[in-house]
């Protein structure tokens, strides 16, 4: 008798707490200067729609250690999945976007994806044990028609469940295919959460 799990989606994770501590003051500076209310939610401040912030981030050498880390590990991430890295390496190295976010109690981020990029990710710079998790949604359409309820899980059998909950902590960095839908539920945490979301290999 044999049980097999098939059709998984690969996600990269690592702990970079020292790097998070180094870049946090820089991101707080950017939020103070360029942060804007995101999607009419005053509990979510972001540099997402600020063109000046995007330009400044690309010229700011303080982001270089993080950028280099993300690029190199994104290429390894693709290679691990047996992707021909050479066809994507030039655009991954040259096309990227950092989005700095601060979420307070009441903030959330609805389900979405980043289909115009190759790899997306998130770096948790400041959060608490009560911070909302990141939730990945299974991309397989059959879950739309499933007839039995399955509880969400963060265990190793994640391919059995329609949603995968990732507990977050300071220093956690994640990479995933940009087409993978994800969301952050309503925050009930009294502490703020600061992250850098990013896209690599943008094709638009």
Please characterize this protein's 3D structure.
- By secondary structure, this protein is α+β, with helices and mostly antiparallel strands.
- Helix content is 25%, strand content 28%.
- It has 4 helices and 11 strands.
- The protein has helices spanning 17-34, 51-59, 64-80, 89-94; strands at 12-15, 36-38, 41-46, 96-103, 109-112, 119-126, 134-137, 163-166, 172-177, 182-184, 193-200.
- The protein has a 7-stranded antiparallel sheet. A 4-stranded antiparallel sheet has the order 5-10-7-8, with no helix packed on it.
- Strand 2 and strand 3 (41-46) form a beta hairpin.
- The model has no long low-confidence stretch (mean pLDDT 90).
Q: Please tell me what the overall shape is.
A: globular
Low-confidence stretches: none
Q: In percent, how much strand structure appears in the residues?
A: 25-35%
| Biggest beta-sheet profile | 7 strands, antiparallel
Placed side by side, the strands forming the largest sheet appear as 1-9-6-11-4-3-2
Output the helix-strand order.
Answer: EHEEHHHEEEEEEEE
**Strand element count:** 11
What would you report as the Rg, rounded to the nearest angstrom? 17 Å
**Helix/strand-derived class?**
alpha+beta
The averaged pLDDT comes out at 90
Percent helix: 10-25%
Figure out the total of helices. Answer: 4
How many angstroms does the end-to-end distance come to?
Answer: 49 Å
SSE layout and pairing:
Blueprint: E1 12-15, H1 17-34, E2 36-38, E3 41-46, H2 51-59, H3 64-80, H4 89-94, E4 96-103, E5 109-112, E6 119-126, E7 134-137, E8 163-166, E9 172-177, E10 182-184, E11 193-200
Antiparallel strand pairs: 1-9, 2-3, 3-4, 4-11, 5-10, 6-9, 6-11, 7-8, 7-10
């Amino acid at each position: 008798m044999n049980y097999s799990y098939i059709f998984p989606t690969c996600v990269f994770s690592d702990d970079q707490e020292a790097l998070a501590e180094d870049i946090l003051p820089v991101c707080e500076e950017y939020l103070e200067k360029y942060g804007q209310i995101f999607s009419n939610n005053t509990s979510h401040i972001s540099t997402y729609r600020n063109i000046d912030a995007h330009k400044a981030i690309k010229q700011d050498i303080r982001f270089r250690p993080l950028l280099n880390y993300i690029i190199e590990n994104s290429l390894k991430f693709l290679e691990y999945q047996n992707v021909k890295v050479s066809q994507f390496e030039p655009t991954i190295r040259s096309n990227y976007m950092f989005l700095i976010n601060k979420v307070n109690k009441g903030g959330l981020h609805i389900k979405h994806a980043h289909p115009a990029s190759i790899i997306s990710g998130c770096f948790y710079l400041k959060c608490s044990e009560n911070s909302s998790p990141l939730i990945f949604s299974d991309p397989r359409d059959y879950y739309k028609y499933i007839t039995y309820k399955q509880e969400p899980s963060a265990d190793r059998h994640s391919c059995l469940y329609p949603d995968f909950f990732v507990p977050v902590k300071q220093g956690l960095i994640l990479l995933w295919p940009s087409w993978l839908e994800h969301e952050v539920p309503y925050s009930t945490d009294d502490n703020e959460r600061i992250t850098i979301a990013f896209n690599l290999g943008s094709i638009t």
